[in-house]
Amino acid sequence: MNFEAVYKNLVRGVEKFHFEGSAVPCQLLLAGDMAVPVASGPTGQVLIAASRYGDGRVVVMGHEEYMQDPKFHQFLQNAIKWLKPQQDAVVGVCKKPQLANHLSKTGSKVKSLHRYDGSVGVFCCDAYDDHQAAELVEFVKGGGGLLIGGQAWHWAYTHKEDVLHSFPGNKITGVAGIYFT
Asked: Could you give the residue ranges of the DSSP H alpha helices within the chain?
């Protein structure tokens, strides 16, 4: 994988990432040889990353609110374009109406879903539900694209389990070498 090309495709037209505001992101841990840091915070912590797994691709955001924030629109368009297995692939969006609306307005075929159903080329969701973890891992491995966002700090505060192994999103993104911390 050409890391520089991936980075350039994802940040094309993005002058600055705006992480300020009420959403407090979590740091992402990159552990795989395919994981690429895309954006970092002021102290160098990775807040957005991308990776490949099998024949598919993953983009991880350190807070789910960034997936609906207009300040991230250009990045989100770039991410969807990079994630699509084919140019005309349908994008499934789970419980993110602002993201679905933005992607529709920018030319993507969008399907609003309550859960992954196998009918899309890209799936967009938050990182708080692992009921379909195995299915999503297979989807990406087989060539699908996944845009996922979340933060694990609140989850870690309310759970006794180890975040790296038990946080729902990590059961999905960990195979691609990206972990919510």
From this structure: 3-11, 73-83, 97-105, 133-141, 153-158, 163-166, 170-173
